[in-house]
Amino acid sequence: MEQLIQTLSWIAAALQVPVVVAILYLLARGLLATGGYYGRWSDRLRWRRRIGMDSDGHLPEAGIGMLIEALEDGRASGQPLQRAAAALRQAPADTAWHERVITEFELGTDRQLALYRSMTRIGPLLGLMGTLIPLGPALVGLAAGDISLLARKMEVAFATTVVGLVIGAMGFLLHQSASRWALDDLSLLEFLSSKLREKA
Hints:
- By secondary structure, the protein is an all-alpha fold.
- It has one domain (15-199).
- It has six helices and no strands.
- The chain has helices spanning 2-14, 16-50, 63-73, 80-90, 95-144, 147-199.
């Protein structure tokens, strides 16, 4: 039995470095995603102003022409919405083609949201693991009277908890905003698809 306990302790100790590395990796990805979020937010504000869309997402009566023009102007930036709008215009009257383009846009958006979902769920989980793993050696150090070892291990435990929760909070907030944007973009594509088929 003692050997089994020692094996479990060794496995837990061996996981500490991978857990810390995973936390740092997710934190870096979260910071990059936050920077990308700001860029997309400023782009969205710019072209929404151009087509005259209000804060509630309502277009003016003559907004379809400006919408198409604004989407085409941003095509070179490679944004998913612009690429999908350009694809819709390749076959304005083909309903099956429009459905395929919109479905591919939805799948692509879901792949982008997967990172935010992972941050929301895995960040706090890794933080909890990073908290519990050092507690064993910290208690051993406390029993042996080694206060410096206890302090080092508790510092690691608290740091991983805080960073894990920060990752989860970032993922949650980014996911909420990106989900709203995805629904808004999907609504715009469906509106554009309907108008293009009417004009064809």
